[in-house]
Specification:
This protein is 0% helix and 53% strand. The chain is built from no helices and eleven strands. The chain has strands at 3-7, 10-12, 18-25, 33-38, 46-52, 58-61, 69-74, 79-84, 93-102, 108-112, 116-120.
Length: 122
C-alpha cells in the first residue's frame, strides 16, 4: 500500500520538544521533496518546512520556526522527520507530512500523511 504514516505528536509544555516521523510505504522518499504542513481549523494550510533530495538536500523553513525546527530525511529508513524544539503555544496545530514528486512532463505526484496533533500548553 502506498501511504505515509505519521507519529510523534502529543501534548508538550512551552519550551519543550517533539519529533514527528513520517514513514513511507510503497514509495521511496529519496526521490521526493518532503514537506511538513500545519492546518488548524479556521486557518489556511501553511508550509512549515521542507527538504528536497533532488535539490541537494536544500531546506526551507517558515519564518516563525527558523532556529527552532529542523527537517531531515533518513533514506535508509525511508522516513522523514521534523524535530521541533522550543515549542510555543502558537505552534499548536495538526501537522501533515507530504511527499511530492515533480514529474518530467509536468505535474506532481503527491501523498499526504494522516496528520498529527501537536498541542503546546502550560
Amino acid at each position: 500500500q502506498v501511504q505515509l504514516m505519521e507519529s510523534g505528536g502529543g501534548l508538550v509544555q512551552p519550551g519543550g520538544s517533539l519529533k514527528l516521523s513520517c514513514t513511507a510505504s510503497g514509495l521511496s522518499l529519496e526521490r521526493y521533496a518532503v514537506g511538513w504542513f500545519r492546518h488548524a481549523p479556521g486557518k489556511e494550510r501553511e508550509v512549515v518546512a521542507c527538504i528536497s533530495n533532488s535539490d541537494g538536500g536544500r531546506t526551507f523553513y517558515e519564518d516563525s520556526v527558523v532556529g527552532r525546527f529542523t527537517v531531515s530525511l533518513d533514506n535508509a529508513k525511508n522516513t522523514g522527520y521534523l524535530q521541533m524544539n522550543n515549542l510555543e503555544p502558537a505552534d499548536t496545530d495538526v501537522y501533515y507530512c507530504n511527499a511530492d514528486l515533480t514529474l518530467q512532463l509536468g505535474g506532481h505526484r503527491r501523498l499526504w500523511g494522516q496528520g498529527s496533533q501537536v498541542t503546546v500548553s502550560s
